[in-house]
Amino acid sequence: MATAAAAAFSPLRRRLPLHHRGRRLLAVAAALSPEHPAPTPTTSPPPPPPRKGYFPKRNEVLELTCEGLAFKGKGVCRVDGSTFVLLCDGALPGERLLARVRRIRRGAFAEAAKLRTLEPHLDAVDAPCPLAADCGGCKTQSLAYAAQIRHKHLQVRELLVNFGKFDPRKMESSEPDAILKPIVPCDEIFRYRNKMEFSFGTKRWMQREWKEEKDDEVVKEEKAEGDGYSLGLHAPGFFDKVLHVEKCLLQSEPADKVLAIVQETWLDPALGLTPYDVHKHVGFLKHLMIRTGRNIDTGAPEVMVNFVTSCYKPELLEPLVNKITKIPEVVSIMNNVNTSVGNTSVGEEEYTLYGKPTITEMLRGLTFQISANSFFQTNTKQADVLYKLIGESAGLKGDGSEIILDLFCGTGTIGLTLARRAKHVYGYEVVPEAIADAKKNAKLNGISNATFVQGDLNKINETFGKEFPKPDIIISDPNRPGMHMKLIKWLLEVKAPRIVYVSCNPATCARDLDYLCHGVEDKDLKGCYELKTVIPVDMFPHTPHIECICVLELC
């Protein structure tokens, strides 16, 4: 089986995606054109007539009004009276701000850097994390959660209309037969992540700010608290600067306890611990990863701590291990050794310093073992909601007669949750470690009707599909670039009765849905599917990320 499957993937070099970043960013910006203006308060005076010929200059300082959110959470902004779009990180809908033009993108739009707020945005709330404005991990904390999901829903709608070319009249969630369903919110908007990765740094970088100097020059300034070492998250846009983090409201409370103990211990000069310097390639500590699972018998939290170091010196970590193990939830302490100069947290060697090498978690009634480097959905509770919706969308008969093809299967979580109602599940994934985990998870749960194969779905050839029966249902859960044209073509040829497309990027999702439903004219491909439903799911509150479950049925 493995040999036949491997032959279905050609060695051709992967082709670049069919879009570029600018198109994704403009998808929502296009929706906020004069034909689709953003709502404004009724008390505001009418804006002056649009200056359609207006074109900003690089480094120009402007007063902007933010009208909405685009891809990656960037604010869609305009100068009053102008139709020209500027995308500004940190700007939120309804906010008036001062910004400097940083880049002009082929004359279509510009990117701007926020200098300061002139008037606060609509739905403003106080961000509970003092680092929210600087960290970049929770860039919409100061926007009320109801407003966050409203804007995410709007982004999906406009992408489906502008990129997917679907009828906007069928995108109204208030209609019972509408394609676009209401967004599914997240019940827990803090403490929802089961995994956080922190980095050690040689400089305690506190914040990035922009300030006006004489002659209207704007100078980028880094504020540092002395030359102290740091442990925290990378500053947005920097691989070598780390924002010192004492606690994180996204991770579990036991994980916060671990972080606090490490912070108060590792800086002791007597321990001889040094952070890795990414420029000089010296130092010991690279990353601190904290994962939270559940004890299957008691439901109590299980915490794994993973130190990523440049070499194996367990005696240096012993003082940290002795203190961390006093936290009752900690059941595993691992040491991944990564001798490369890169910034990855995956080690070439792995050692167990305390306890067991894995923790466990439950998802849709199945048990999963999670190692230090395993892929697993980082919001367990919302993943349970997501997988329930996927199961309902798959529309299995339940008589065990159907073949499921699980594309981009990862560690097999989706396919395994459906396997007991199917005849057989075939999963494909490019990452060999994920395939190994999928096979382990199948065995752990006593599932024998699931086959997992390693292969690159961007490099399939004419033999792909010959090693398994024609699928009744295809689950496709690609990463952010979406599906390659080779796979789109194969899907249009195989004509499975139903496709459930699970997307973490609504821009590439809308593009792929357009291809499957409307075809690709320049490739002489005819679409043969009808888009039945799209369900947006908020997996990560306070971030711009949106998950979508899309159901397509053969015409």
Automatic annotation (TrEMBL):
Residues 55-114 form the TRAM domain. The active site is at C504. It holds the Pfam family tRNA_U5-meth_tr. Residues 36-51 have a biased composition (Pro residues). Residues 31-53 are annotated as: Disordered. Keywords: Methyltransferase, S-adenosyl-L-methionine, Transferase. S-adenosyl-L-methionine binds at Q377, F408, E429, D477. InterPro entries: MeTrfase_TrmA_CS, NA-bd_OB-fold, SAM-dependent_MTases_sf, TRAM_dom, U5_MeTrfase_fam. The keyword Methyltransferase applies. CDD domains: AdoMet_MTases. Belongs to the class I-like SAM-binding methyltransferase superfamily. RNA M5U methyltransferase family. NCBIfam families: rumA (TIGR00479). This is TRAM domain-containing protein. It comes from Oryza meridionalis. The lineage of its organism: Eukaryota, Viridiplantae, Streptophyta, Embryophyta, Tracheophyta.
